[in-house]
Each structure stands twice: as C-alpha cells, then as structure tokens.
C-alpha cells in the first residue's frame, strides 16, 4: 500500500512539473499514439485531454513531412536526443513553426518537447525586411557595438568608404576610418549616453586615402537592463557641398 502511495505521489509531482512548463510536452507510444500530454500540449494542438487519446504523432505533421516521423524516431534511439524545426499542424488545420526536442524514455516511449517559435520567426522576418531597406539606402549605415566594433555595414558604406562588409566587420570605426572628431570623442560619447543621440560633422579617410566630410547621426540602443547595446550611425557624404560653400565664401 505504501509503495502504491509513493508511486501515485511521484506521478502527481511529475504531472505538476510538466504542466508548469510553457512548452508543449507529448509522450508517444511505440505505435505513435499519444499516451501523455501536458497543458501546453493541449493549448498548442487546440484540443481537450479526452481528444488526445486518439491523437497520433503523424496528425501533427503536414503531409510533406510525415515520411520523416520514423526517420526522426530512429535518430532519437541512436543519438538519445535530436533537435529540429518543423511545421506543426494544429487541430484547426492552422500551421505554425515549432522547435522540437525529441528523446526516448526508459519505457521505450518517445518524448517530444515542442516550442512555438512563431514570434521568433516574425521577428527574424522583420529584421530581414529592415536589413533590405538599409541595403537600399545611399547613405552609409553602420551598426557598432558598445566597443565601437562594426556589426553591420550596408552597401552605402561600401560605396562611400571602399571597404566591403566582410572587410569592415569587427573593426573599430574610428580606427578604420581614421576619424577626425569636432571635439574629444569622450565628450561626444557622454552626450550620446545622456541623450541617446548625437549629430555633427566628421572627417573620414576612405580606403584609397581620400578624405571625406560626412554629416553623421548616432542613435543609441539599450538592452533590457538599460545598458548600452548598439549604436546606429548614419553618415552622408557632404564633401562636395562643403567644398562649394568654401568656394562661395572665398568669392565673397
């Protein structure tokens, strides 16, 4: 009686543990039928606990991926755990992207921990669109980290300065471009940290040694803790305009 009570208590704790997980957890039998699922799995598939008794692993796959179910099960048996991304088919026929961690249990069952990555995919797509827009800009657009190392270098920067993106990545901007600042860099950085932005004119040296004057705008991005994370720098070549202004000034 005591042994049975311990088993029930252990099962209850296990159930409470998996139900507390935000991810969907399914346990599948040898024949691919669902034998256990947590609350997250019910939400992901969109069904009741009673409906899970008729659920098969293949029911959650789009038709194109169903032939891979056996292949992935075999991989889990050999490797212990396999991780992959796939399309998840919900009960209402909605298809969502998920990240799966598939493993085997000591009882010959399969456990899959499934995470909905819809928001992550949407964020990645938004970043891709933003990167495309930045690539179309004629201005030099540079993103640098808190140490001023270049992490993004658009085609406009390539055209302005002569270095390709792979050549510029990881370099410190003011060292690569031999920047001449209107005042001490520490003072400019202090303004940037205090206000989140800075604007002014800089003198840069291109790859071929030519000096250019740029109208530069800096914007600071902070992380979740409020610490400086990245700086967006947009530079527009105003060398010709400055030269024309000097000519007018001299003539007058």
Write the SSE topology.
Layout: H1 2-19, E1 24-28, E2 34-37, H2 39-45, H3 68-79, E3 81-89, E4 95-104, E5 110-116, H4 118-136, E6 140-145, E7 150-153, H5 155-161, H6 165-168, H7 173-176, H8 185-195, E8 197-205, E9 211-222, E10 228-237, H9 239-251
Antiparallel strand pairs: 1-2, 1-5, 3-4, 4-5, 6-7, 6-10, 8-9, 9-10
Strand order of the largest sheet: 2-1-5-4-3
Low-confidence blocks of residues: 1-7
Q: Look at the structure and give the mean pLDDT.
A: 87
Radius of gyration: 29 Å
Identify the overall geometry. elongated
**What is the structural class?**
alpha+beta
What is the chain-wise order of helices and strands? HEEHHEEEHEEHHHHEEEH
Assign a percent range to the helix content.
Answer: 25-40%
Instruction: Please give the number of β-strands.
Output: 10
What is the CA–CA distance across the termini?
106 Å
Structural descriptors:
single chain, 252 residues, alpha+beta, five-stranded antiparallel sheet
Describe this structure in words.
The protein starts with a helix and ends with a helix. A hairpin with a 5-residue loop joins strand 4 and strand 5. The chain has nine helices and ten strands. 38% of the residues lie in helices and 30% in strands. It has 252 residues and is an alpha+beta fold.
């Amino acid at each position: 009686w005591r042994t049975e009570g311990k088993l029930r208590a252990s099962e209850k704790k296990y159930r409470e543990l998996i139900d507390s997980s935000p991810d969907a957890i399914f346990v599948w039998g040898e024949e691919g039928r669902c034998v256990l699922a947590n609350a997250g799995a019910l939400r992901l598939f969109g069904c009741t606990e009673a409906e899970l008794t008729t659920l098969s692993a293949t029911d959650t796959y789009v038709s194109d991926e169903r032939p891979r179910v056996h292949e992935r099960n075999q991989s889990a048996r050999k490797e212990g755990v396999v991780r992959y991304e796939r399309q998840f088919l919900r009960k209402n026929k909605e298809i969502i992207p998920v990240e799966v961690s598939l493993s085997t249990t000591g009882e010959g069952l399969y456990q899959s921990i499934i995470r909905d990555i819809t928001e992550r995919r949407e964020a990645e797509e938004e970043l891709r669109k933003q990167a495309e827009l930045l690539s179309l800009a004629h201005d030099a657009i540079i993103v640098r980290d808190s140490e001023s190392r270049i992490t993004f270098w658009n085609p406009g920067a390539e055209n302005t300065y002569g270095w390709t993106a792979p050549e510029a990545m990881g370099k410190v901007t003011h060292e690569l471009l031999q920047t001449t600042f209107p005042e001490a860099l520490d003072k400019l950085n202090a303004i940037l940290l205090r206000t989140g932005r800075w604007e002014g004119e800089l003198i840069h040296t291109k790859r071929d040694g030519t000096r250019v004057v740029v109208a530069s705008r800096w914007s600071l991005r902070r992380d979740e803790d409020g610490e400086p994370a990245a700086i967006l720098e947009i530079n527009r070549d105003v060398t010709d305009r400055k030269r024309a202004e000097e000519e007018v000034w001299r003539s007058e």
